[in-house]
Protein backbone atom coordinates (compact mmCIF):
# COMPACT_ATOMS: atom_id res chain seq x y z
CA UNK A 1 0.00 0.00 0.00
CA UNK A 2 1.57 3.22 -1.10
CA UNK A 3 -0.55 5.43 1.13
CA UNK A 4 1.75 6.48 3.94
CA UNK A 5 0.97 5.31 7.46
CA UNK A 6 -0.84 7.95 9.45
CA UNK A 7 1.55 10.06 11.51
CA UNK A 8 0.99 9.62 15.22
CA UNK A 9 2.72 11.44 18.08
CA UNK A 10 5.59 9.43 19.52
CA UNK A 11 5.85 7.43 16.29
CA UNK A 12 8.87 5.15 16.22
CA UNK A 13 11.28 6.36 13.53
CA UNK A 14 14.24 4.06 13.17
CA UNK A 15 17.12 5.65 11.36
CA UNK A 16 20.79 6.47 11.21
CA UNK A 17 22.81 9.36 12.49
CA UNK A 18 25.99 9.82 10.46
CA UNK A 19 28.87 11.80 11.91
CA UNK A 20 30.66 13.66 9.14
CA UNK A 21 33.27 14.78 11.64
CA UNK A 22 34.58 11.32 12.40
CA UNK A 23 33.86 9.45 9.16
CA UNK A 24 37.23 8.48 7.72
CA UNK A 25 35.88 7.47 4.31
CA UNK A 26 37.09 3.88 4.55
CA UNK A 27 34.01 2.43 2.77
CA UNK A 28 33.75 -0.33 5.40
CA UNK A 29 30.06 0.52 5.90
CA UNK A 30 29.42 0.14 2.17
CA UNK A 31 31.30 -3.15 2.00
CA UNK A 32 29.70 -4.67 5.08
CA UNK A 33 26.29 -3.49 3.85
CA UNK A 34 26.87 -5.29 0.57
CA UNK A 35 28.14 -8.35 2.42
CA UNK A 36 25.07 -8.62 4.65
CA UNK A 37 22.45 -7.66 2.11
CA UNK A 38 23.74 -9.82 -0.72
CA UNK A 39 22.32 -12.77 1.22
CA UNK A 40 19.57 -11.07 3.21
CA UNK A 41 16.11 -9.61 2.65
CA UNK A 42 16.98 -8.17 -0.77
CA UNK A 43 19.63 -10.64 -1.82
CA UNK A 44 21.21 -11.60 -4.06
CA UNK A 45 22.45 -8.23 -5.27
CA UNK A 46 23.68 -8.02 -8.81
CA UNK A 47 27.36 -7.34 -9.04
CA UNK A 48 30.52 -7.58 -11.02
CA UNK A 49 29.93 -9.18 -14.35
CA UNK A 50 31.90 -7.25 -16.90
CA UNK A 51 32.19 -4.16 -14.80
CA UNK A 52 31.74 -3.58 -11.11
CA UNK A 53 28.52 -1.64 -11.54
CA UNK A 54 26.18 -3.63 -9.34
CA UNK A 55 23.70 -2.62 -6.67
CA UNK A 56 24.99 -1.07 -3.46
CA UNK A 57 22.79 0.44 -0.75
CA UNK A 58 25.52 2.60 0.61
CA UNK A 59 27.90 4.89 -1.26
CA UNK A 60 30.67 6.96 0.27
CA UNK A 61 31.35 10.25 -1.51
CA UNK A 62 34.07 12.73 -0.58
CA UNK A 63 33.39 16.44 -0.89
CA UNK A 64 35.45 19.56 -0.49
CA UNK A 65 33.71 22.53 1.06
CA UNK A 66 34.99 26.08 1.24
CA UNK A 67 38.13 27.64 -0.16
CA UNK A 68 41.72 27.88 0.96
CA UNK A 69 42.72 27.34 4.54
CA UNK A 70 39.18 27.28 5.85
CA UNK A 71 38.15 24.53 3.45
CA UNK A 72 37.31 21.03 4.64
CA UNK A 73 37.43 17.65 3.03
CA UNK A 74 34.41 15.68 4.17
CA UNK A 75 33.69 12.01 3.67
CA UNK A 76 30.00 11.64 3.02
CA UNK A 77 28.22 8.27 3.25
CA UNK A 78 24.93 8.31 1.34
CA UNK A 79 22.13 5.79 1.82
CA UNK A 80 18.34 5.71 2.22
CA UNK A 81 17.15 8.31 4.72
CA UNK A 82 13.86 6.49 5.44
CA UNK A 83 11.91 9.72 4.94
CA UNK A 84 8.77 10.40 6.91
CA UNK A 85 7.00 11.41 3.70
CA UNK A 86 8.83 9.47 1.00
CA UNK A 87 7.79 10.21 -2.57
CA UNK A 88 9.41 6.93 -3.63
CA UNK A 89 6.56 5.18 -1.82
CA UNK A 90 3.64 7.28 -2.99
CA UNK A 91 4.65 7.19 -6.69
CA UNK A 92 4.80 3.38 -6.70
CA UNK A 93 1.99 2.08 -8.92
CA UNK A 94 1.90 -1.42 -7.44
CA UNK A 95 2.23 -1.01 -3.70
CA UNK A 96 5.55 -2.86 -3.76
CA UNK A 97 7.17 0.15 -2.19
CA UNK A 98 5.95 0.78 1.32
CA UNK A 99 6.71 2.47 4.61
CA UNK A 100 6.26 0.37 7.73
CA UNK A 101 3.88 1.85 10.27
CA UNK A 102 5.61 0.18 13.23
CA UNK A 103 9.11 1.61 12.75
CA UNK A 104 9.10 3.79 9.65
CA UNK A 105 11.44 1.62 7.60
CA UNK A 106 10.94 2.05 3.84
CA UNK A 107 11.05 -1.27 2.01
CA UNK A 108 10.41 -2.78 -1.43
CA UNK A 109 8.50 -6.02 -1.88
CA UNK A 110 10.60 -7.72 -4.55
CA UNK A 111 7.72 -10.12 -5.32
CA UNK A 112 5.35 -7.39 -6.51
CA UNK A 113 7.76 -4.74 -7.87
CA UNK A 114 7.35 -4.36 -11.64
CA UNK A 115 10.65 -2.56 -12.09
CA UNK A 116 9.18 0.64 -13.55
CA UNK A 117 11.98 2.68 -11.92
CA UNK A 118 9.66 5.57 -11.08
CA UNK A 119 10.60 5.38 -7.38
CA UNK A 120 14.25 5.94 -8.26
CA UNK A 121 13.19 9.01 -10.26
CA UNK A 122 11.20 10.28 -7.27
CA UNK A 123 14.00 9.86 -4.71
CA UNK A 124 16.18 12.97 -4.63
CA UNK A 125 18.92 11.18 -2.70
CA UNK A 126 19.66 8.29 -5.06
CA UNK A 127 18.77 5.73 -2.42
CA UNK A 128 17.29 3.26 -4.86
CA UNK A 129 19.20 1.20 -7.36
CA UNK A 130 17.69 -1.03 -10.03
CA UNK A 131 18.78 -4.67 -10.02
CA UNK A 132 19.25 -5.52 -13.70
CA UNK A 133 19.33 -9.26 -12.96
CA UNK A 134 16.15 -9.41 -10.87
CA UNK A 135 14.34 -6.66 -12.78
CA UNK A 136 13.24 -5.03 -9.53
CA UNK A 137 14.24 -2.03 -7.46
CA UNK A 138 16.42 -2.49 -4.39
CA UNK A 139 17.30 -0.27 -1.50
CA UNK A 140 18.61 -0.03 2.05
CA UNK A 141 16.43 -2.08 4.40
CA UNK A 142 18.02 -0.64 7.52
CA UNK A 143 19.03 -4.31 7.88
CA UNK A 144 15.47 -5.18 8.87
CA UNK A 145 16.54 -8.83 8.83
CA UNK A 146 19.33 -8.10 11.32
CA UNK A 147 17.98 -5.55 13.77
CA UNK A 148 15.07 -7.78 14.80
CA UNK A 149 16.96 -11.06 14.50
CA UNK A 150 16.51 -13.08 17.72
CA UNK A 151 19.25 -15.47 16.65
CA UNK A 152 21.83 -12.72 17.04
CA UNK A 153 23.20 -11.44 20.36
CA UNK A 154 21.39 -8.25 21.26
CA UNK A 155 24.50 -6.13 20.78
CA UNK A 156 24.69 -7.26 17.14
CA UNK A 157 21.13 -6.21 16.30
CA UNK A 158 22.18 -3.02 14.54
CA UNK A 159 22.51 -2.36 10.81
CA UNK A 160 25.63 -3.85 9.23
CA UNK A 161 27.02 -0.42 8.36
CA UNK A 162 26.75 0.70 11.99
CA UNK A 163 28.24 -2.51 13.37
CA UNK A 164 31.32 -2.29 11.19
CA UNK A 165 32.16 1.43 11.29
CA UNK A 166 35.69 1.62 12.74
CA UNK A 167 35.44 5.31 13.60
CA UNK A 168 32.04 5.10 15.27
CA UNK A 169 30.66 7.57 12.76
CA UNK A 170 27.34 5.76 12.35
CA UNK A 171 24.68 5.55 15.01
CA UNK A 172 21.39 3.68 14.92
CA UNK A 173 18.26 4.26 16.95
CA UNK A 174 14.78 5.67 17.28
CA UNK A 175 14.75 9.28 16.11
CA UNK A 176 11.08 9.55 17.02
CA UNK A 177 11.96 9.32 20.72
CA UNK A 178 13.43 12.65 21.86
CA UNK A 179 15.20 10.89 24.74
CA UNK A 180 16.94 8.22 22.69
CA UNK A 181 20.74 8.30 22.44
CA UNK A 182 20.58 9.22 18.76
CA UNK A 183 18.10 12.04 19.34
CA UNK A 184 20.27 13.46 22.12
CA UNK A 185 23.31 13.20 19.86
CA UNK A 186 21.46 15.06 17.09
CA UNK A 187 20.39 17.77 19.53
CA UNK A 188 23.89 18.17 20.96
CA UNK A 189 25.71 18.26 17.65
CA UNK A 190 23.19 20.13 15.54
CA UNK A 191 22.30 17.18 13.31
CA UNK A 192 20.59 18.17 10.09
CA UNK A 193 18.48 16.84 7.21
CA UNK A 194 19.63 16.60 3.60
CA UNK A 195 17.71 18.77 1.12
CA UNK A 196 15.05 19.80 3.67
CA UNK A 197 13.64 22.16 1.01
CA UNK A 198 12.06 19.21 -0.79
CA UNK A 199 9.88 18.42 2.21
CA UNK A 200 10.32 14.65 2.35
CA UNK A 201 11.32 14.87 6.02
CA UNK A 202 14.24 12.46 6.04
CA UNK A 203 14.60 10.57 9.32
CA UNK A 204 18.36 10.08 9.06
CA UNK A 205 20.45 12.95 10.33
CA UNK A 206 23.96 14.09 9.51
CA UNK A 207 26.23 15.57 12.16
CA UNK A 208 28.28 18.44 10.74
CA UNK A 209 32.08 18.47 10.93
CA UNK A 210 33.04 20.17 14.19
CA UNK A 211 34.42 23.68 13.74
CA UNK A 212 38.16 23.63 13.57
CA UNK A 213 39.51 24.78 16.90
CA UNK A 214 43.13 25.16 15.92
CA UNK A 215 45.14 25.21 12.75
CA UNK A 216 43.36 28.04 10.98
CA UNK A 217 45.41 31.22 10.79
CA UNK A 218 43.22 33.45 12.92
CA UNK A 219 42.73 31.06 15.84
CA UNK A 220 46.45 30.23 15.70
CA UNK A 221 47.42 33.85 16.26
CA UNK A 222 44.99 34.04 19.14
CA UNK A 223 46.40 30.89 20.68
CA UNK A 224 50.00 32.09 20.52
CA UNK A 225 49.15 35.43 22.04
CA UNK A 226 47.42 33.75 24.94
CA UNK A 227 50.69 32.10 25.99
CA UNK A 228 51.28 34.31 28.91
CA UNK A 229 47.73 34.35 30.15
CA UNK A 230 46.19 32.30 32.93
CA UNK A 231 44.81 29.80 30.45
CA UNK A 232 46.38 26.39 30.43
CA UNK A 233 49.24 26.09 27.96
CA UNK A 234 48.18 23.92 25.06
CA UNK A 235 50.39 21.62 23.03
CA UNK A 236 49.91 24.03 20.22
CA UNK A 237 51.46 26.81 22.20
CA UNK A 238 54.53 24.63 22.63
CA UNK A 239 54.56 23.94 18.93
CA UNK A 240 54.33 27.62 18.15
CA UNK A 241 57.28 28.35 20.35
CA UNK A 242 59.50 26.25 18.16
CA UNK A 243 57.74 26.57 14.82
CA UNK A 244 60.57 24.96 12.87
CA UNK A 245 61.28 22.29 15.39
CA UNK A 246 61.04 18.65 14.43
CA UNK A 247 58.15 17.84 16.70
CA UNK A 248 55.95 20.81 15.87
CA UNK A 249 53.83 19.07 13.26
CA UNK A 250 53.25 16.19 15.65
CA UNK A 251 52.40 18.57 18.48
CA UNK A 252 49.99 20.46 16.27
CA UNK A 253 48.26 17.20 15.39
CA UNK A 254 48.25 15.96 18.96
CA UNK A 255 46.77 19.26 20.10
CA UNK A 256 43.96 19.00 17.60
CA UNK A 257 43.10 15.45 18.63
CA UNK A 258 43.34 16.07 22.36
CA UNK A 259 41.30 19.23 22.27
CA UNK A 260 38.27 17.50 20.70
CA UNK B 1 17.39 11.66 -17.38
CA UNK B 2 17.98 8.70 -19.66
CA UNK B 3 15.73 8.94 -22.73
CA UNK B 4 14.47 5.35 -22.98
CA UNK B 5 12.96 4.53 -26.38
CA UNK B 6 10.11 2.57 -24.80
CA UNK B 7 9.00 5.58 -22.75
CA UNK B 8 9.40 7.98 -25.69
CA UNK B 9 7.17 5.75 -27.84
CA UNK B 10 4.75 5.31 -24.94
CA UNK B 11 4.23 9.02 -24.28
CA UNK B 12 4.21 10.16 -27.91
CA UNK B 13 2.00 7.38 -29.28
CA UNK B 14 -0.53 7.58 -26.47
CA UNK B 15 -0.40 11.38 -26.59
CA UNK B 16 -1.27 11.40 -30.30
CA UNK B 17 -3.75 8.55 -29.80
CA UNK B 18 -5.66 10.28 -27.02
CA UNK B 19 -5.49 13.56 -28.92
CA UNK B 20 -7.09 11.87 -31.92
CA UNK B 21 -9.60 10.20 -29.61
CA UNK B 22 -10.62 13.63 -28.28
CA UNK B 23 -11.24 14.98 -31.82
CA UNK B 24 -12.98 11.77 -32.85
CA UNK B 25 -15.18 11.81 -29.73
CA UNK B 26 -16.11 15.42 -30.37
CA UNK B 27 -16.97 14.58 -33.99
CA UNK B 28 -19.30 11.81 -32.80
CA UNK B 29 -20.81 14.07 -30.17
CA UNK B 30 -21.51 17.04 -32.41
CA UNK B 31 -21.91 15.56 -35.87
CA UNK B 32 -23.44 12.09 -35.54
CA UNK B 33 -24.76 11.87 -39.06
CA UNK B 34 -24.60 8.84 -41.38
CA UNK B 35 -22.09 10.72 -43.55
CA UNK B 36 -19.62 10.69 -40.67
CA UNK B 37 -19.95 6.99 -39.88
CA UNK B 38 -16.79 5.81 -41.68
CA UNK B 39 -14.75 8.76 -40.49
CA UNK B 40 -15.83 8.20 -36.88
CA UNK B 41 -15.01 4.49 -37.01
CA UNK B 42 -11.65 4.92 -38.75
CA UNK B 43 -10.45 7.71 -36.46
CA UNK B 44 -11.62 5.78 -33.41
CA UNK B 45 -9.85 2.61 -34.52
CA UNK B 46 -6.65 4.49 -35.39
CA UNK B 47 -6.66 6.26 -32.04
CA UNK B 48 -7.14 3.01 -30.11
CA UNK B 49 -4.42 1.34 -32.17
CA UNK B 50 -1.95 4.11 -31.35
CA UNK B 51 -2.92 4.09 -27.68
CA UNK B 52 -2.55 0.31 -27.50
CA UNK B 53 0.86 0.40 -29.19
CA UNK B 54 1.98 3.10 -26.76
CA UNK B 55 0.77 1.21 -23.71
CA UNK B 56 2.45 -1.97 -24.93
CA UNK B 57 5.65 -0.03 -25.44
CA UNK B 58 5.47 1.23 -21.86
CA UNK B 59 5.60 -2.34 -20.56
CA UNK B 60 8.92 -2.80 -22.37
CA UNK B 61 10.36 -0.30 -19.91
CA UNK B 62 9.53 -2.60 -17.00
CA UNK B 63 11.99 -4.93 -15.37
CA UNK B 64 9.11 -7.36 -14.82
CA UNK B 65 6.58 -6.78 -17.62
CA UNK B 66 4.59 -9.89 -16.63
CA UNK B 67 3.59 -8.09 -13.45
CA UNK B 68 2.31 -4.98 -15.25
CA UNK B 69 -1.27 -5.72 -14.17
CA UNK B 70 -0.31 -4.80 -10.61
CA UNK B 71 0.27 -1.20 -11.68
CA UNK B 72 -3.39 -0.17 -11.51
CA UNK B 73 -3.79 -0.80 -7.78
CA UNK B 74 -2.32 2.36 -6.22
CA UNK B 75 -4.46 5.05 -7.82
CA UNK B 76 -4.86 6.80 -4.48
CA UNK B 77 -1.29 8.12 -4.50
CA UNK B 78 0.43 7.21 -7.77
CA UNK B 79 0.01 9.14 -11.02
CA UNK B 80 1.43 6.17 -12.92
CA UNK B 81 -1.28 3.98 -11.43
CA UNK B 82 -3.94 6.59 -12.24
CA UNK B 83 -2.63 6.77 -15.79
CA UNK B 84 -2.95 3.02 -16.13
CA UNK B 85 -6.50 3.02 -14.77
CA UNK B 86 -7.57 5.99 -16.89
CA UNK B 87 -6.06 4.36 -19.98
CA UNK B 88 -7.98 1.15 -19.38
CA UNK B 89 -11.17 3.01 -18.46
CA UNK B 90 -11.01 4.98 -21.72
CA UNK B 91 -11.35 1.75 -23.73
CA UNK B 92 -14.86 1.26 -22.35
CA UNK B 93 -16.66 4.36 -23.76
CA UNK B 94 -14.45 4.30 -26.86
CA UNK B 95 -15.35 0.70 -27.63
CA UNK B 96 -19.03 1.34 -26.90
CA UNK B 97 -18.91 4.38 -29.19
CA UNK B 98 -17.45 2.20 -31.94
CA UNK B 99 -20.18 -0.38 -31.36
CA UNK B 100 -22.85 2.32 -31.49
CA UNK B 101 -21.57 3.42 -34.90
CA UNK B 102 -21.38 -0.18 -36.12
CA UNK B 103 -24.90 -0.97 -34.97
CA UNK B 104 -26.51 2.20 -36.26
CA UNK B 105 -25.56 4.70 -38.98
CA UNK B 106 -27.25 7.34 -36.88
CA UNK B 107 -26.53 6.56 -33.23
CA UNK B 108 -27.95 9.88 -32.06
CA UNK B 109 -27.92 10.42 -28.31
CA UNK B 110 -25.68 7.38 -27.74
CA UNK B 111 -22.97 8.95 -29.91
CA UNK B 112 -23.36 12.29 -28.20
CA UNK B 113 -23.00 10.80 -24.71
CA UNK B 114 -20.30 8.28 -25.56
CA UNK B 115 -18.41 10.82 -27.67
CA UNK B 116 -18.28 13.30 -24.81
CA UNK B 117 -17.36 10.61 -22.25
CA UNK B 118 -14.62 9.23 -24.53
CA UNK B 119 -13.15 12.69 -25.04
CA UNK B 120 -13.25 13.36 -21.30
CA UNK B 121 -11.56 10.07 -20.50
CA UNK B 122 -8.84 10.87 -23.04
CA UNK B 123 -8.32 14.29 -21.44
CA UNK B 124 -7.98 12.69 -18.00
CA UNK B 125 -5.49 10.12 -19.32
CA UNK B 126 -3.28 12.75 -20.96
CA UNK B 127 -3.36 14.70 -17.72
CA UNK B 128 -2.30 11.63 -15.71
CA UNK B 129 0.55 10.90 -18.14
CA UNK B 130 1.82 14.46 -17.83
CA UNK B 131 1.51 14.36 -14.04
CA UNK B 132 3.78 11.30 -13.83
CA UNK B 133 6.53 13.76 -14.79
CA UNK B 134 5.12 17.01 -13.45
CA UNK B 135 4.76 15.54 -9.95
CA UNK B 136 8.45 14.71 -9.52
CA UNK B 137 10.03 17.33 -7.28
CA UNK B 138 13.43 15.87 -8.07
CA UNK B 139 13.44 17.11 -11.68
CA UNK B 140 13.13 20.85 -12.14
CA UNK B 141 12.66 20.56 -15.91
CA UNK B 142 9.58 18.38 -15.31
CA UNK B 143 7.99 19.85 -12.23
CA UNK B 144 6.81 23.17 -13.59
CA UNK B 145 3.65 24.77 -14.91
CA UNK B 146 4.60 24.20 -18.55
CA UNK B 147 4.68 20.39 -18.63
CA UNK B 148 0.96 19.61 -18.36
CA UNK B 149 -0.09 22.26 -20.93
CA UNK B 150 2.66 21.00 -23.24
CA UNK B 151 1.44 17.42 -23.03
CA UNK B 152 -2.11 18.57 -23.78
CA UNK B 153 -1.05 20.88 -26.60
CA UNK B 154 1.17 18.30 -28.28
CA UNK B 155 -1.40 15.53 -27.84
CA UNK B 156 -4.19 17.64 -29.33
CA UNK B 157 -1.91 18.92 -32.10
CA UNK B 158 -0.65 15.48 -33.15
CA UNK B 159 -4.21 14.16 -32.87
CA UNK B 160 -5.48 17.00 -35.05
CA UNK B 161 -2.84 16.29 -37.71
CA UNK B 162 -3.85 12.63 -37.75
CA UNK B 163 -7.51 13.57 -37.84
CA UNK B 164 -6.97 15.91 -40.79
CA UNK B 165 -4.91 13.34 -42.69
CA UNK B 166 -7.47 10.58 -42.13
CA UNK B 167 -10.26 12.88 -43.33
CA UNK B 168 -8.33 13.60 -46.52
CA UNK B 169 -7.55 9.92 -47.04
CA UNK B 170 -11.25 9.08 -46.68
CA UNK B 171 -12.15 11.81 -49.14
CA UNK B 172 -13.77 13.93 -46.46
CA UNK B 173 -11.11 16.65 -46.44
CA UNK B 174 -12.30 19.50 -44.28
CA UNK B 175 -10.56 22.91 -44.43
CA UNK B 176 -11.81 23.70 -40.93
CA UNK B 177 -9.96 20.69 -39.49
CA UNK B 178 -6.79 21.63 -41.40
CA UNK B 179 -7.09 25.09 -39.93
CA UNK B 180 -7.66 23.75 -36.42
CA UNK B 181 -4.57 21.56 -36.76
CA UNK B 182 -2.46 24.55 -37.87
CA UNK B 183 -3.71 26.65 -34.99
CA UNK B 184 -3.10 23.79 -32.53
CA UNK B 185 0.43 23.64 -33.91
CA UNK B 186 0.98 27.32 -33.26
CA UNK B 187 -0.34 26.97 -29.71
CA UNK B 188 1.89 23.95 -29.06
CA UNK B 189 4.85 25.83 -30.50
CA UNK B 190 4.20 28.72 -28.14
CA UNK B 191 4.04 26.34 -25.20
CA UNK B 192 7.27 24.63 -26.16
CA UNK B 193 9.12 27.92 -26.61
CA UNK B 194 7.90 29.10 -23.21
CA UNK B 195 9.06 25.81 -21.68
CA UNK B 196 12.50 26.13 -23.26
CA UNK B 197 12.85 29.66 -21.96
CA UNK B 198 11.80 28.51 -18.50
CA UNK B 199 14.37 25.70 -18.30
CA UNK B 200 17.08 27.96 -19.70
CA UNK B 201 16.55 30.68 -17.12
CA UNK B 202 15.71 28.78 -13.92
CA UNK B 203 17.36 26.07 -11.83
CA UNK B 204 16.29 23.61 -9.17
CA UNK B 205 16.28 25.11 -5.69
CA UNK B 206 18.51 22.32 -4.41
CA UNK B 207 22.28 22.70 -4.69
CA UNK B 208 25.34 20.64 -3.76
CA UNK B 209 25.32 22.74 -0.59
CA UNK B 210 21.78 21.78 0.43
CA UNK B 211 22.29 18.20 -0.75
CA UNK B 212 25.25 17.71 1.57
CA UNK B 213 24.37 20.27 4.23
CA UNK B 214 27.96 21.51 4.03
CA UNK B 215 27.10 24.92 2.60
CA UNK B 216 27.92 26.56 5.93
CA UNK B 217 31.60 25.83 5.30
CA UNK B 218 31.52 27.17 1.78
CA UNK B 219 30.99 26.14 -1.79
CA UNK B 220 30.74 22.34 -2.07
CA UNK B 221 32.40 20.33 -4.82
CA UNK B 222 32.91 16.62 -5.37
CA UNK B 223 36.44 15.58 -4.42
CA UNK B 224 36.13 11.85 -4.96
CA UNK B 225 33.30 9.78 -6.42
CA UNK B 226 32.16 6.77 -4.42
CA UNK B 227 32.87 4.32 -7.21
CA UNK B 228 34.95 4.02 -10.35
CA UNK B 229 32.31 2.54 -12.66
CA UNK B 230 29.07 4.09 -13.81
CA UNK B 231 26.27 2.79 -11.63
CA UNK B 232 22.51 2.67 -12.22
CA UNK B 233 22.04 6.17 -10.83
CA UNK B 234 24.55 7.70 -13.21
CA UNK B 235 23.17 5.82 -16.23
CA UNK B 236 19.51 6.54 -15.45
CA UNK B 237 19.68 9.97 -13.82
CA UNK B 238 23.01 11.26 -15.07
CA UNK B 239 22.27 11.46 -18.77
CA UNK B 240 23.56 14.78 -20.06
CA UNK B 241 23.47 16.36 -23.46
CA UNK B 242 25.86 19.00 -24.71
CA UNK B 243 24.32 22.41 -25.29
CA UNK B 244 25.30 22.46 -28.97
CA UNK B 245 23.64 19.08 -29.57
CA UNK B 246 20.51 20.19 -27.76
CA UNK B 247 20.41 23.30 -29.95
CA UNK B 248 20.59 21.16 -33.09
CA UNK B 249 17.78 18.92 -31.89
CA UNK B 250 15.69 21.99 -31.05
CA UNK B 251 16.12 23.22 -34.61
CA UNK B 252 15.04 19.80 -35.85
CA UNK B 253 11.99 19.94 -33.57
CA UNK B 254 11.10 23.44 -34.74
CA UNK B 255 11.28 22.29 -38.34
CA UNK B 256 9.85 18.75 -38.22
CA UNK B 257 7.30 19.08 -35.43
CA UNK B 258 6.11 22.64 -35.98
CA UNK B 259 7.32 24.43 -39.13
CA UNK B 260 6.78 21.79 -41.81
CA UNK B 261 3.43 20.37 -40.56
CA UNK B 262 1.92 23.82 -40.00
CA UNK B 263 2.91 24.94 -43.50
CA UNK B 264 1.69 21.64 -44.96
CA UNK B 265 -1.64 22.08 -43.20
CA UNK B 266 -1.99 25.53 -44.68
CA UNK B 267 -1.16 24.12 -48.13
CA UNK B 268 -3.73 21.39 -47.58
CA UNK B 269 -6.26 23.98 -46.46
CA UNK B 270 -5.73 26.06 -49.60
CA UNK B 271 -5.37 23.34 -52.23
CA UNK B 272 -7.88 20.63 -51.41
CA UNK B 273 -8.16 17.40 -53.34
CA UNK B 274 -5.25 14.99 -53.81
CA UNK B 275 -2.43 17.50 -53.11
CA UNK B 276 -4.13 18.29 -49.82
CA UNK B 277 -4.18 14.61 -48.90
CA UNK B 278 -0.49 14.22 -49.74
CA UNK B 279 0.36 17.32 -47.72
CA UNK B 280 -1.64 16.09 -44.73
CA UNK B 281 0.06 12.69 -44.75
CA UNK B 282 3.48 14.33 -45.03
CA UNK B 283 2.55 16.57 -42.11
CA UNK B 284 1.78 13.50 -39.97
CA UNK B 285 5.06 11.81 -40.88
CA UNK B 286 7.08 14.93 -40.20
CA UNK B 287 5.35 15.63 -36.90
CA UNK B 288 5.76 11.98 -35.88
CA UNK B 289 9.53 12.24 -36.23
CA UNK B 290 9.48 15.68 -34.64
CA UNK B 291 7.50 14.68 -31.58
CA UNK B 292 9.84 11.73 -30.96
CA UNK B 293 12.76 14.17 -31.01
CA UNK B 294 10.84 16.53 -28.73
CA UNK B 295 10.21 13.76 -26.19
CA UNK B 296 13.81 12.55 -26.41
CA UNK B 297 14.98 16.06 -25.56
CA UNK B 298 12.38 16.34 -22.78
CA UNK B 299 14.22 13.48 -21.08
CA UNK B 300 17.76 14.35 -22.14
CA UNK B 301 17.54 17.91 -20.81
CA UNK B 302 15.96 16.85 -17.51
CA UNK B 303 18.38 16.98 -14.59
CA UNK B 304 17.90 14.98 -11.42
CA UNK B 305 18.93 16.18 -7.96
CA UNK B 306 20.89 12.98 -7.27
CA UNK B 307 23.55 14.22 -9.66
CA UNK B 308 24.32 16.99 -7.15
CA UNK B 309 26.08 14.20 -5.24
CA UNK B 310 28.05 13.31 -8.37
CA UNK B 311 29.55 16.68 -9.15
CA UNK B 312 26.69 18.57 -10.82
CA UNK B 313 26.66 22.25 -9.80
CA UNK B 314 22.97 22.69 -10.52
CA UNK B 315 19.93 20.54 -11.16
Characterize the structure shown.
The complex is a heterodimer of chains A (260) and B (315). Chain A has 260 residues and is of the alpha+beta class. Chain A folds into two domains: 194 residues, Alpha-Beta Plaits; 42 residues, no CATH class. Chain A contains nine helices and nine strands. In chain A, strands 8-1-9 form a three-stranded mixed beta sheet. A two-stranded antiparallel sheet of chain A has the order 2-3. In chain A, strands 4-5 form a two-stranded antiparallel sheet. In chain A, strand 2 and strand 3 form a beta hairpin. In chain A, helix 8 packs antiparallel against helix 9. Chain A starts with 13 loop residues before the first strand and ends with a helix. Chain B contains ten helices and one strand, in the order H-H-H-H-H-H-H-E-H-H-H. Chain B has 315 residues and is mainly α. Chains A and B meet through strand 2, strand 3, helix 2, helix 3 and strand 6 of A and helix 3, helix 7, strand 1 and helix 8 of B. Strand 2 of chain A pairs antiparallel with strand 1 of chain B.
Amino acid sequence: MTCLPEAVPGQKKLGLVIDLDTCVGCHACAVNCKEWNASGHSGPLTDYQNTSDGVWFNRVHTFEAGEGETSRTVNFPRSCLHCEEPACVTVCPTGASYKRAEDGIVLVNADTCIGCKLCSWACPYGAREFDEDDGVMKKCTLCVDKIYNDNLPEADRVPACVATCPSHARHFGDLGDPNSDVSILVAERGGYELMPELGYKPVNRYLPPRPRKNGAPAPLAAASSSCGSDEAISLLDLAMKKPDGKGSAFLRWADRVLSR
Amino acid sequence: MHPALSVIVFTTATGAGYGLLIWSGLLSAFSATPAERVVALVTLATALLLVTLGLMSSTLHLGRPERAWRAVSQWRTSWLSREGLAAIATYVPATLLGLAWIVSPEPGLAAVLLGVVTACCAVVTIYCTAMIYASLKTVHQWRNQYVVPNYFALGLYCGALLFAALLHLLGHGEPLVDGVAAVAGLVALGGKLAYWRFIATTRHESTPESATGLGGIGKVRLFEAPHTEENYLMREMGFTIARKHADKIRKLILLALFGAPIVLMLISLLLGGLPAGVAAVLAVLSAGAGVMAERWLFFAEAKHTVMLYYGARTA
